Amino acid sequence: AEADILKTFTLRTSFGGEIYSFDNNNFVIPEYENAENNTVNSYTETTGNGYDWTWTNTLTYHKNFNQRHDLKVLIGSEAFDNSFRSMTGTTTDYFSFDPDFTNLSTGTGTPTNGSSFGSDGLFSLFARVDYTFRDRYLLGALIRRDGSSRFGADNRYGNFPAISAAWRISQENFMKNVSWISDLKIRGGYGIMGNQINVTPSNQFVAYGFDRTSSFYSINGAATTSKGFIRTQLGNPAAKWESNVNSNIGVDATLFKGALEFTVDYYQKEVRDLLYNPELAGVYGASTVPFSNVAKMKNKGWDVSITSINNLTKDLKLEVTGTLTTYKN
């Protein structure tokens, strides 16, 4: 839904998502050709369902002053929620491979089963300003505040700014007599973008579970085993947003009435507080290692693109593009 208010304001809201379910089954047929091939047949069924939705709300102010100053201001919020659940079962050692016969109850092996579920959410506030003066000077600024349930309460939110500027030199008075330059622009930008995909929502918690081969024990030599629990995952509530710091400076040009176009960019990307799960010392046990902010990585290089457009005849045009990218990590 969208509404124009007082000629200069636009209010917009959008909601979308999906509700899904799935069901699949597969049969693994034994292969005897080589010793390393599978010699056991098995049948597996998996079923699950889930949903996700995104709700975005923005208010935009846009006004042009005296055909010189163009100003656009946007503020907004966005919410995301996701939830899923699945269940699976497997049985082995079937004496018939007929698909009309196989199910989880007709195999002679020991059935195994499992299930999983999870959810996560995001909530963001953002604001953006874009200003243009006579289509010569362009300035943009953005600030985001993103919150993710994948991080602990102390590090749930992160602030991520960005700024960009451009100067269209070809619109200046001193360039009007330079006929072979159709368009020339210098631009640059700097911004920080947050990343939370590497981390699961459970990364912040210490988890315990049991395993028949690792945590069950026969007390006093008894014929039966007693249940025991082990730590299955180490938690890291101190994990925080990974920051991708991007900066670039570039030139865009169109020359000789459109016959030649080129773009040159120098870029640098630095990943700060990189999320990774390194190996830990053996004294921590066999628990799953949590993701932590343990590293920094930098990439930099050049991007160049040149396009030549030639009208060979009235009906035949030749367009040639060459690109060059350098990359240093």
Tags for this entry?
two-stranded antiparallel sheet, twelve-stranded antiparallel sheet, 14 strands, 329 residues, mainly beta, elongated
Can you tell me about this structure?
By secondary structure, the chain is mainly β. The chain contains no helices and 14 strands. Strands 1-2-3-4-5-6-7-8-11-12-13-14 form a twelve-stranded antiparallel sheet, with no helix packed on it. Strands 9-10 form a two-stranded antiparallel ribbon.
Unreliably modeled segments: none
Percent in helix: under 10%
How many helices in DSSP terms?
A: 0
Work out the strand percent. over 45%
**Helix-strand string:** EEEEEEEEEEEEEE
**Overall mean pLDDT:** 93
Write down the overall geometry: elongated
List the helices and strands and how they pair.
Elements: E1 2-5, E2 9-28, E3 42-65, E4 69-92, E5 112-133, E6 137-148, E7 157-168, E8 181-195, E9 207-209, E10 230-233, E11 242-255, E12 260-276, E13 292-311, E14 317-325
Antiparallel strand pairs: 1-2, 2-3, 3-4, 4-5, 5-6, 6-7, 7-8, 8-11, 9-10, 11-12, 12-13, 13-14
Structure summarized in a few sentences:
With 329 residues, the protein is an all-beta fold. It is 0% helix and 61% strand.
